[in-house]
Design a protein that fits this description.
Elements (H helix, E strand, L loop, with lengths): L6 H12 L3 E3 L19 E6 L21 H8 L11 E3 L5 E3 L20 H6 L10 E6 L10 H18 L8 E3 H5 L10 H10 L4 H4 L8 H10 L4 H12 L17 H11 L11 H7 L3
Parallel strand pairs: 1-4, 2-5, 2-6, 3-5
Antiparallel strand pairs: 3-4
Length: 297
């Protein structure tokens, strides 16, 4: 089995990258048509909008932006009545929840536009020919009326994280080629999404996968609590969150231990200070400047 079709691996990585923002619908592990990827794996994610939603408000507290408010849209994308199969691999709800409908190919891309698609940067990369998008690209349906730029902040963050996670799963090296709007593929017959590919790429860059954000809840630890873990040699939530953050930044090597077991990450702190404070005598020390610098990055 290829790692690109190993559903247990893919599920684990999606869960690690999106935390409590991922839900697997009941048929997520089933195979639909087309039955396999043209070249063994997808080459990117085509971004759609549903053209229907309970609200256009971007207020996170608004009715229509809560989990369950768009159940009809979620159900429709999960099982398109014309095909008895998902209308895309993923549905992105207005509260930022990503629903996984399937992991293999399904009908979502439709016909390509020769003037838009053939010769585009995406087509040159994937070699996806005329009307072949379903066999080359995954899709995400974003719950939105599609009349204006009304994606919620939660949707933008989850979109960025989803694309980053999929890039890790499927070895998409160039993140600019990892996503394309439906209109970039289908041309004038489609208007989704209202955002440009460059705007969506900005979310990919800004809201990449983050252990600190998804596992650690995005909470900044108190400086004194980190120092307590350092000086007393104990495991506490502050040391755990620091380890998660340093892992995101590439300075913690290996697997961060669970909350309650993670000790002060002295080696990771030293790795960080080697780069940012090379003149420090003892680079394992966590100081006020490092605290400000780490949580501002």
């Amino acid at each position: 089995m290829s790692k690109y079709t190993d559903t247990k691996r893919i599920k684990r990585m999606l869960e690690e990258g999106l935390g409590d923002k991922i839900v697997f619908n009941k048929r997520w592990n089933q195979t639909f048509k087309p039955s396999q990827w043209a070249k063994g794996k997808p080459f990117g994610l085509i971004t759609h909008h549903t053209a229907g939603a309970a609200t256009s408000s971007t207020d996170p507290d608004a009715k229509g932006n809560q989990k369950g408010d768009n159940a009809g849209q979620i159900k429709f994308v999960e099982n398109h009545p014309d095909f008895n199969s998902p209308a895309s691999q993923f549905t992105l709800d207005r509260d930022g929840t990503v629903y996984v409908n399937c992991l293999g190919p399904t009908y979502h891309a439709g016909k390509s536009d020769p003037n838009n698609w053939i010769g585009s940067k995406w087509q040159k990369d994937s070699k996806c020919g005329k009307d072949a998008g379903n066999s080359y690209y995954m899709g995400v349906e974003t719950v939105d009326k599609g009349q204006k730029k009304t994606f919620t902040q939660a949707q933008k963050e989850s979109m960025g994280r989803l694309i980053n996670v999929l890039a890790d799963i499927f070895d998409w090296d160039d993140l600019e080629l990892a996503h394309a709007n439906h209109k970039s593929y289908a041309g004038p017959r489609k208007v989704d999404t209202k955002y440009t590919d460059d705007q969506i790429h900005g979310w990919v860059q800004k809201y990449g996968t983050s252990l600190w954000a998804t596992v650690g809840g995005g909470k900044v630890p108190e400086y004194d609590a980190v120092k307590k873990a350092e000086e007393e040699g104990i495991a506490n939530p502050a040391a755990w969150r620091l380890a998660l953050k340093l892992s995101d930044l590439g300075f913690y090597k290996g697997e961060v231990q669970p909350k309650g077991s993670q000790m002060y990450p002295a080696k990771a702190v030293a790795n960080y200070n080697e780069v940012h404070a090379p003149n420090m005598e003892d680079k394992t020390v966590y100081g006020p400047k490092m605290h400000e610098r780490v949580w501002g990055e």
